[in-house]
Amino acid sequence: MRFGWAGWLGYDAGIPTRPLAFALAVLVGALAACSSSDPIRVPLTDQGNVQLPRETVAKLPLFDLLTLDTRRGYLYVAHTSNSTVDIVDVRSKKLAGSIAGVAGVKQIALTPDPNIIFASASTAGGVLEIDVDARKVLATIPVDGSPDAIDYDPVHDYVVVCLGGAKKLAAIDRKTLKVVGTVSLPGAPELMTIDPQAGRAFVAINDQDAAAAIDLGSLQVTSIYKGCDIKAPTGMAYDPAQARLFVADRALVSVIDVLVDRCLGSVDIGNGVDQITINPHNHHLYTANGGSRNLSVIDIVSLQPLGEQGTGPSGDGVAADPTTNTVYVIVGRAGIIAVYHDP
């Protein structure tokens, strides 16, 4: 099923879309400018940072994505330039250790066992099963085509990975460590999000200005979402409570109601967005805008922007803890995790 909005008029179901939201933002900005006594309000509260390990080979640090496990209080950091998965203890705000031997690490997927994680390793050309407590790689599952974004599907007990070079998605049985099957995608995949209730994946198709929905039971593409201001999408997030898919690209987040295949509009964000994530507790969406060195915060119910938080250069990865309303951002150039509280 395909859908587009060539005739979209900019207003849908009483929800302000981009043109109206922009006008409101200009009005609010003008009113704020008239009152010089009002302080500038930022959406988050700075709570310091955590220093990550120094570079062992590369001159400049290179990181990819973040994954937070609230069960253990561990934040997993894809430290690509060191070929390690760094582990931050978010309770103590200290580095708990690193797992070596993960060449080209991109992202980490959690599993029902809090001691077992999976990492996509593009240089190694595989998905790695890792014992966290032992800080050890247990197994390598070969996959073709540069494994990148990775996540876990609880419905089918699959580890799901995007294969950028092959333009495919692969499903791996968590217990047998065997590739169950692959899905050919309509273009080059970027990031991905999982619907934990229906057992499906939503993948950003970067070179086709689209997002794809994949049924992980049948391993078939079931929907292609185009239009709705989607241009070279990167970050993806899904809210199962509202059945809303959030697709981030250069400076916008497009919102799709996947139940009725309808665009709900788009919201302005910063430039160079990569990872995005939702806090289901306070209904906020966070987008890591590495190009503009900030983090955008959006209310996912009203679809209104709540402000932007400066993060520093190369803030590309973000994670949110719904139990504490804490937000974590990679500040790549500084080699730190910036910690914020919402609000």
Shape, principal axes of CA atoms: globular
**Total count of domains:** 1
Uncertain regions spanning at least 5 consecutive residues: 1-39
CATH superfamily: YVTN repeat-like/Quinoprotein amine dehydrogenase
Your description of this structure?
This protein is mainly beta. It has one domain (45-341): Methylamine Dehydrogenase, Chain H, CATH 2.130.10. Helix content is 5%, strand content 51%. The protein has 1 helix and 31 strands. The strands form 8 sheets. It has a 5-stranded mixed β-sheet with strand order 1-20-19-18-17, with no helix packed on it. The protein has a 4-stranded antiparallel β-sheet with strand order 4-31-30-29, with no helix packed on it. The protein has a 4-stranded antiparallel β-sheet with strand order 5-6-7-8, with no helix packed on it. A hairpin with a 4-residue loop joins β27 (294-299) and β28 (304-310). The radius of gyration is 19 Å and the shape is globular. The chain starts with a strand and ends with a strand.
